[in-house]
Amino acid sequence: MIGPIVQGSLRPIWSFTVIQDDNTAFNLTGATFTGVLYSRPTSRAITLTGTFTITSTTLGTFTYSPVAGDVSEPGEFEIEMAIIIGAAPIYVRDHVTIMERYAV
Fold this sequence. Notes:
- The structure is a single chain.
- Helices cover 0% and strands 52% of the residues.
- The chain is mainly β.
């Protein structure tokens, strides 16, 4: 699970590790990524427009640096990322909570 994240925050950078069914790291050599946040319970989609960065191809790790528009509304979300290597994407899901920003 990611977060919780404060509404509009560009930190923390989100970190992911892709593990296969046999408990080994998924090799990310040549991978590209796309991502979508789905609002709960409405399933409204927010396309992620920040930056995906592979941190280790052989360990299956990558990060996502959000932009303000990714986290502009508070609520509960499912994040779905497509890892694209060749023709068939692999989909990864996680949960994220975006907390409302309060002035203090």
